[in-house]
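lol ok so funny story. i was supposed to be doing the assay writeup but got distracted and ended up predicting the structure for this chain instead. priorities right. anyway since i did it might as well share w the group, maybe its usefull for someone
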Amino acid sequence: MNWAHMSQAARDAAYNNGLAVANSQALVRERNEEAAAFRAAHPGHLDLAYGESERTKWDIFPAREPGSPCLIFIHGGYWQMNRREDFAHFAAGVAAHAWSVALPGYSLAPQASVTQITAELRAGLDWLGGHGGEHGLNGKFILSGWSAGAQLTAILLDHPLISAGLAISGVFELGPLRDTYLNAKLGLSDAEIENLSPLRLAPVQKPLAIAYGTAELPALVNDSRELHELRAAAHAPGILLPVPGADHFTILDELEAPAGSLTKLLLDLV
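and the output, tada:
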């Protein structure tokens, strides 16, 4: 992309996943309905507060065996949309392989900056390390996230609780977002762009798999490929997985399905 010569409309469209996927609203409605049904069927460990705000809570779906691996999944929405409750059913893929799953919520922009969101989730991981055993979580913890959650996964990979990560369809360079419609709520600072863009940071030497859909927006595809290249140059472990034909929303089908490519990738990380 020749960013300097692009119109404002073109810059906005470069990161507008809803506009890029014609049936995105229907996909979101279907996702939310499936998540509500999954939560209703697994009510035992929901809304566990790790902070003081309404959104700083965990939903935990423990496996029967307390030593099972646990997937921690961070939802996306450009740090300003969505909630953990609407992603619960994506636990089904690894749960079919006797994993536990934990989903954290976090405050959203503009009430919270990306810096605050990162700090909240880091505190949430601290809480899980101290209290996870009370909810049957005693195995390895694998961190994953989608979209903005992928950026947060890359940033939080250094947390001592985390053994490995899977970043799905992420934005790993925050600088261009300041020139788009997204920044009206994000209000990104120079320091945030420098310190919270994974493409500007030294790679964490833990396994981090990176996945993207081949039908996604070029900006997201490029960020995923460039982050893998950066990590490979530093000999940081982790594969790059293009998911054929998947867009920004349908790629998560591969996480929900027990035989999905993202589910298999998580199993390989353990």
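Residues 3-269 form a domain with the Rossmann fold fold (CATH 3.40.50.1820). Residues 195 and 201 are 7 Å apart (CA to CA).
back to the writeup now i swear
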